[in-house]
Amino acid sequence: MMSNRIRNKKLLKRVCSAKEAAMLIKDNMNVAASGFTPSGYPKAVPLALAEICKENKEKIKINLYTGASVGDELDGSWARADIIKKRLPYQTNESLRDHTNKGRCEFLDMHLSHVPNYVKLGFLGKIDIAIIEAVAITKEGHIIPSTSIGASPTYVKMADKVIVEINTSQPLELEGMADICIPQNPPYKRPLPIVLPNDRIGTDYIPCGLDKIAAIVITDIEDNVRSLSPIDETSEKISENLINFLKKEVELGRLTNELLPLQSGVGSVANAVLAGLGKSEFENLVCYTEVIQDSMLDLIDTNKVLFASGTAITPSIEGLKKFKENIKTYRDRIILRPQEISNHPEIIRRLGVIAMNTAIEADIYGNVNSTNIMGSRMMNGIGGSGDFTRNAYLSIFTTSSTAKNGEISSIVPMVSHHDHTEHDVMVIITEQGVADLRGLSPKERAEKIINNCAHPDFKPMLLDYFSRAKEKSYGHTPHILGEALSWHERFMEKGTMIVE
Ligand code: COA
Q1: Distance from residue 430's CA to the centre of ligand 1 (Å)
Q2: What pLDDT shows up at residue 429?
Q3: Model pLDDT for residues 374-383, shown as the tens digit of each residue
């Protein structure tokens, strides 16, 4: 069976235990790993390293770079073992989040399309070791990736040594789904000839070569995917508002019933939006996105979506089972690309992508915070939302109008952290309604956002702030600076943004 997975006999000598491979990782190294929104990441070697550190009481500190978030076997076990000195570019793990927010490790929240470039241009130092999950290694020593591509091609290219984790729980039929291409550095960059989401421009393996592979570990630990919370009433209403907005765009002749390539963000609202599309009259849809989650697989099953391009398959536990059972069908309808290509500004702009992402909060002028709760507590990271928002044909942000049982307004006078600026955000949608901000000045935007998107409990407070700001400050983007962030301060002091 292993001859299918390790196709060059010479490589069999490099098969070793996870512990032996983990011992190649030394203090102060820059370690890069495969993995994207927890799929396709190495598991056995990270768990072994955490164990070694516990047994030896040996303190090692390393910088960990991945494609995006990875499972608990890596982020969680390493955070708890206090191994991580610096982490980038995105995470969703509770232990690591806690670690970061307590200031015990540094976290670089980066646009995901920038990561491979930063590595290739040497901004992040040299990569000592890359640990890559694979379904197989070819005769030539090239790597057939598993459920995510992320930044792995660049990590392999730039690493001194590569540890390959062959994961036998990942079906061999994944072979052929990837399309790998590593763009050159400036000034030799060439246009990327993707004009349709299903265009292929590369190889179905990650170029590596026999010499670079320092160790091979066999494992069968499955991707630690999570179940999605059931779609609640608020998410359903947001999804309905978004679909009605798109229908109006069709009526106005700005879109056809096939829409344009869709990008959908992560989380429960994003999942609800896709589920809503399944019930809509839109048809023959295509996706040019980052992560392919459950609802997108459902849309492929019903032929609503003809084709999806992304960088990772990130279903729930049930979705993963279905994906594996029907992998042959999905392989013809899905391409997985490096994140530098799935999130590439040139392609997103050319295809005219409709970007749909989730905000933590938005302000009355249309600025969006996707990452920091109350301005300083890191949630997950910007992920690909900036890559898509800045370059989309239509950039949409959805959010529930309130959080924490109605004590927080998600529409605030000023965002407490800034990820997407008023210059990039075109439409904001809550369960209350839709604010189409295209062509509006700051004051016009404020009126639209407050009236259409704010919760009735907070609307009078926002209107009052806006009207006093117009009297007291300059006329372009009216603000009362001393008060603009007082809503957040009030929540932190009193547990509510509401004035008693
Ligand atoms: N103020 C304070 N806290 C807020 C808030 C607000 N305005 N809005 C939400 N929250 C809290 C929620 O209460 C919840 O807290 P908890 O974990 O303590 O329960 C947490 O933020 C997450 O909220 P939830 O409604 O469950 O979010 P979600 O699953 O829809 O995800 C984001 C929303 C913004 C966190 C998520 O989409 C994300 O990480 N986005 C950035 C990356 C991205 O967009 N990637 C896609 C690009 S392809």
Answers
A1: 14
A2: 98
A3: 999 999 999 9
